[in-house]
Amino acid sequence: MFRFTRSVVPLRTTASALLLLSAALAPGTAARAQVVYSSLAGTFTNTAAVTDFAYVDDYTTSLFRPTDPFVTTFRLGTLSFVGGPTFTGASTAANSTIRFSFLDQFGGPVSTFTQTFATSGSFLRTLDVSGLNITAATKGFFQVTTGPTTAASFEFTNAAPTIGTNDPAIGNFRNTAQPGVKAFSFSVAAAPEPGTVALVAMGLMGTAGMVIRRKKA
């Protein structure tokens, strides 16, 4: 005959499990990132640094599936681009705010965020926005906007995207057609490694609080 009894997991066991769980979810945990669009190859051409401007360019990521209407957005992990603010006159580090916007393929808004830059110059910059919950369309438009006190430039490339596609005939600068391929790339917000998922599962099991133990009568 068997008897089932319940016993409370010792406090230190629960605490250890919680520590394991928090470590698994902590920033810097090993994770996988995936670049889904990149036009950062080729030779770059710099545009003049001007204030109060906006440019728009199209993109199609590797995630886009024309026959799947349910997968239309993804959570952005990193945004890379070649360009940046130029600190001259009224444009300084204190007010070098640039707005980045993502539109869907029909021009509808998806998400927007702003970034202030501490360094001047046009070069490859990478922004980690994985913690901001920014979404972008799998196929759409990327828009960059500055204000009247922020001088900035963004560069073109003479090469086709290495990941995803871009129509070089589509482009807009200050509401004027400006064909070409702008130099930028996107990655998906990283997903935990399988080992991290296992740690989370172990933590959840350890914090259940009660175990059922079989005893022989």
Can you offer a commentary on this structure?
The strands form four sheets. Strands 2, 4, 6, 9, 10, 12 and 17 form a seven-stranded antiparallel beta sheet that branches. This protein has a six-stranded antiparallel beta sheet with strand order 8-7-11-5-14-15, with no helix packed on it. A three-stranded antiparallel beta sheet has the order 3-13-16, with no helix packed on it. The chain has two helices and 18 strands. It has 217 residues and is mainly beta. The protein is globular and about 50 Å long.
Overall body shape: globular
Sequence stretches where pLDDT stays below 50 over 5 or more residues: 1-31, 193-201
List the total number of helices: 2
DSSP strand content: over 45%
The tally of strands reads: 18
Helix and strand element order: EHEEEEEEEEEEEEEEEEHE
Give me the secondary-structure category.
mainly beta
Amino- and carboxy-terminal Cα gap: 6 Å
Instruction: Tell me the domain tally.
Output: 2
Average pLDDT score:
78
Estimate the helix proportion, in percent: 10-25%
Radius of gyration based on Cα positions: 24 Å
Please summarize the sheet with the most strands.
Answer: 7 strands, antiparallel
